What we know:
heterodimer, A: 262 residues, alpha/beta, Rossmann fold, 6-stranded mixed sheet, 4-stranded antiparallel sheet, B: 324 residues, mainly alpha, ABC transporter involved in vitamin B12 uptake, BtuC
Amino acid sequence: MICFEGVTLRYPGQRTPAIRSLSLTAEAGAVTAIVGPNGSGKSTLVRALLGRVTPEQGTVVIDGASLAELSRRDVARRMAVVTQREEPVFPMLVRDFIALGRFAHGSLWAGPTAGDVAVAESSAARAGVTPFMDRRTDTLSGGEWQRVRIARALAQQGKALVLDEPTTFLDIAHEMSVFELLDELAHDGIAVLLVSHQLNLVARFADRIALLHAGEAVAIGSPSDVMRGDVLERVYEWPLVVSRDPAVGAPMLVPLRRRSPR
Amino acid sequence: MRARAWLLLFAALVVAALAAIAFGSVSLSLAAVVDALMGRGAPDAEMIVRVLRLPRVALGIAVGAGLGMSGAALQANLRNALAEPYLLGVSGGAAVGAVLATSLSVTGPGLVPLAAFAGAVVAVMAVLAVAQAARGPGDARVLVMAGVVVGAFANAAIMIVMSNVPDQTVRSALWWMMGSLGDASWAGVRWTAGYVALGGTLLMVYGREIEILALGDEPALALGVDTVSATRRIFLISSLLAAVTVAAAGLVGFVGLVVPAIARSLGARTVRGTILASAITGATLVVAADLAARVARAPAELPLGAVTALVGVPFFLLRLRRMS
């Protein structure tokens, strides 16, 4: 559904590419996670999907069409992106905020139609934010805000959903609820592409993981294939062990201490 | 925004307009104003109301609406509550265009706004380039500093142009630079209102796009907005509105800063609602400020820009403090 085919990405004025010859597919009906240390190029891939970085080589294909040939409105109808940060300067009602997800579907000038309102409401219900619809965005907690942003992305009704570190700063309950929602969405046929630092949750929820290091894919495969102690230790440059999650049996990373406890 | 808030805004505008027609160096009763408006008043009263004050109030409404809408659109576009045409140097650039046109004998209520528009566009490009070279236009203080620099440059350019014109022209140009509705005429009102209606309509048309731009660059791209062309479009429309007001009334600062904040405090949550409420509030503020300018030291007249600055500067400092 989202396909990077031999993609190389380089920021203007930089000698080293941020991403080198990456091939990765986020399939429909699956959660595909991109993990890796800071600066490994994860967010650059999201910026490429937003059109902020143009591939130097290779192509990005979204729902069968080349990204380079699609207008932003076309892209928004096929794929929703929940960016890493979003801080509205001027607060608005959650209801209006979610309805903005319908922008690419309507005419440029018209407001939301009755159909758009219905889609926005069902998206809010799906993301569990219906009780917040008449609240202002500046009154939401971090967890509520992330779910509202996901609701707006769902209102775009794309076949793919991309999220860049959606659970940063969230407590365990909110973090788990976001991951469970993504799992449900994938179950409904959406291609979920997730950038995350939460390796243990990714190991539990993702169908496929791409581990990036210095702009290259070090490993791509199932959680068991990628979450290997030797590989992760080399990439993260930190001693660790990988055991089994006692609850669900998924690989579980345990970072070790370099220094002895005091 | 609730219906009660809209009614309040309209009522304030009507009250301000009636007061501005009734009061001045000669004060008239409400009955005398109504009679004069209906064409059955005393000749002196009809002259004062229909020839002197009504065009002035109408021009004040158009100028205030233009400044309010321009400020609301610029603030959303730049995600910056301190953005407004005067502080950004856009009005200064427009003044350079208008002064250049006047000094080259390009006059007429329809042409001067176009020259002012050209000056405003150059100014906005310069401000954005300066802000970009620093920390980006999203940083309120950097943007205002860039606006101050470009505004100072515009002032210098105006002084150079004026150094080559006759004394009388300098005097009237200086008065205009301080803001005034004193030259109001029905021809000027028609052109100004026409341009303001055009700019306002375009802003309403692109309202949802502006709403999305206000979320930030990446969220806007994700929602399907081509941010580069959309940002440019909104700057052009906002600059047109600012330029038209400068061509009609000179430099009237801080209106675009104050009125969007009032609109939001009254419950405007969408960009379209904020722009519309800013138009009404801006009209009320400019008409009321012009009335204050006329009656404070009657029969002498204070510069309109000075009166709006007396309101706007404390407001600006409060906002800056809140941001800090």
